[in-house]
Design goal:
275 residues, alpha/beta, Rossmann fold, two-stranded antiparallel sheet, 9 helices, 11 strands, 20% strand
């Protein structure tokens, strides 16, 4: 029986970003799942604050070069990779000069969210999908960490509906205390339309903000994780009401809890189980 494949997509991963719950889970969980015998791939944005020399990032020419069109503008997709030697795992970085060269992640020095955070989110999520397509790697589970990945569940279920690479893919969305205040660009829903993901599918973010993006992700995910305590009560209530499988996990034994959860999700429709 072939190994299950798990794609991890996170807005932050340690040691490339500071130590916090999301970055540490996104660092330790893939290693734990890989040590259980599963194949993994891991993606994050290449923020300008990441020191490429210190962390050994280098461009993967064969994966780069695809242009993403957002709001009628072309944005070249650059893929870089680095290795976490101790974990024997690679991390793929989504990069673009317009969106990811600045030193800050989502908020400027004055504490104001970047005006193009909507386009950066769109570019990142599409970039992950296009790179996985180039890798010809079909994931059984895609585990999304943080609001910056919130469009991925929709894109996998709608934009990729005719793509055999994602035909049996299940999507897990993890909730964190990563709230970004204020509204996003009012045209985010229109900009986010892509392939088979149409206006009606994006209606929930006609008023785009952190909560509406989180709810959109919950709507299109197969399962949800409460990854840390103290989450936004409105979003948690929405997740519970959705009836989706919900993992409440804030402990340190990442691999066992999440691996069992993946098995439950894959078993829902007779999908691959390898343990």
């Amino acid at each position: 029986m072939k190994k299950a494949r798990v794609l991890f997509v996170s807005q932050e991963i340690y040691p490339y970003m500071d130590e916090k719950p999301i970055s540490m889970i996104a660092r330790n969980l893939p290693q734990g799942i890989q040590e259980k015998g599963r194949e993994i791939r891991t993606f994050m944005p290449r923020y300008g604050c990441i020191n490429e020399i210190r962390h050994g990032l280098h461009e993967v020419i064969r994966l780069s070069g695809i242009n993403q069109i957002i709001d009628d503008n072309d944005h070249p997709l650059i893929i870089k990779v680095a290795s976490i030697q101790r974990a024997r795992m690679q991390v793929y970085f989504i990069d673009n000069e317009d969106y990811f060269q600045r030193k800050a992640t989502f908020i400027d020095d004055a504490g104001k969210p970047f005006e193009d955070n909507d386009e950066r989110c769109i570019f990142f999520c599409r970039g992950v999908i296009e790179t996985v397509r180039k890798l010809s790697w079909s994931p059984d589970i895609i585990h999304c960490h943080g609001w910056f990945t919130s469009l991925l569940p929709l894109y996998i279920k709608k934009a990729c509906i005719e793509d055999p690479l994602f035909e049996n893919t299940k999507v897990v969305y993890s909730l964190y205390n990563d709230k970004i205040e204020g509204a996003f660009n009012k045209n985010m829903a229109t900009k986010a339309e892509w392939e088979n993901a149409e206006a009606a599918d994006l209606a929930l973010i006609k008023t785009p903000n952190y909560n509406s993006l989180s709810k959109l992700a919950i709507n299109w995910a197969d399962a949800v994780v409460k990854a840390e305590p103290g989450l936004d009560a409105d979003i948690v209530k929405y997740a519970v009401k959705s009836g989706k499988p919900l993992l409440e996990h804030t402990g340190e034994d990442y691999a066992d809890a999440y691996s069992n959860f993946y098995n439950e999700i894959m078993e829902l429709e007779g999908a691959l189980v390898d343990e």
